[in-house]
Amino acid sequence: MASAEPPQSFTSTAPLSHDGGDVGVLLCHGFTGSPISLRPWAQNLIDAGYTVRLPLLPGHGTSWQDANLTTFDDWFAAVQVQLAELLGHCRSVVVAGLSMGGTLTLRLAQTHPEAIAGIVLVNPAVLTLRRAAGLLPVLKYLVPGLKGIAEDIKKPGVRELGYPKTPLKAFDSLRRAWVIVRRDLPKVTMPVLLLHSVVDHVVEPINSDVIRAGISSKDVTEVALENSFHVATLDYDAELIFAQARTFIQRVTGGLS
């Protein structure tokens, strides 16, 4: 008898697509990252029986220069395609995202409020306090990239393998999208699971405060991640995130049929 095919490596930047039960979960990775940061979470959901989509966003998983050729509209279009696919196959869908993936998740919630049963946000981003961000409209034409934001993980020996530089044209596109997402936060009405690291060197804690204060959702569960940095899905609190997400998804969708 042939042995079962081994699971795909957690170091692969390739997108992941799995058809399971009648509840779907769309996972959105972060800026300059790739599916690597969410692959263990995706596998956890697959093992629980869910249908899962984890796309590779345009301009990601290759080189930081490629990211500068893409915009937030490109990334959002990619996750919209995946959402539509899940809605065509599943009775109920939850969307989840890490960092900029949280930005994309919020935008999907704002534009498809009736289609999404709930959202899960892990260290979501809707703004930055970095002074350089205000200079991006000019700086992006002078300098293509600055120091990278990847690899903010507390757990030794774990790598996100994100870009070594931050592509400034792409970052400015994200900055401009944040303005729209913050403006439309009241349009988020579905149940929300908000998980945020106590110490995060990439996304300032004020982001979760702004989101919590701005959304209209009455059903909000907030969880502080005490032992992880920004890429918490690969850090010490990963299993906590996975467990909280499974409980949340079960509750807001009614579970797998």
Structure report:
There is one protein chain. By secondary structure, this protein is an alpha/beta fold. Helices cover 35% and strands 17% of the residues. The protein is built from eight helices and nine strands. It has helices at residues 39-47, 64-67, 72-89, 100-111, 136-142, 168-183, 206-214, 238-253; strands spanning 16-18, 23-28, 51-54, 92-98, 118-122, 145-147, 165-167, 192-197, 220-225. A seven-stranded mixed sheet has the order 1-3-2-4-5-8-9, with helices on both faces. A two-stranded antiparallel sheet has the order 6-7. Helix 5 (136-142) runs antiparallel to helix 6. Mean pLDDT is 94; it is low at 1-8.
Short description:
This protein is an alpha/beta fold and 257 residues long. It contains eight helices and nine strands. The strands form two sheets. The protein has a seven-stranded mixed beta sheet with strand order 1-3-2-4-5-8-9, sandwiched between helices. Strands 6-7 form a two-stranded antiparallel ribbon.
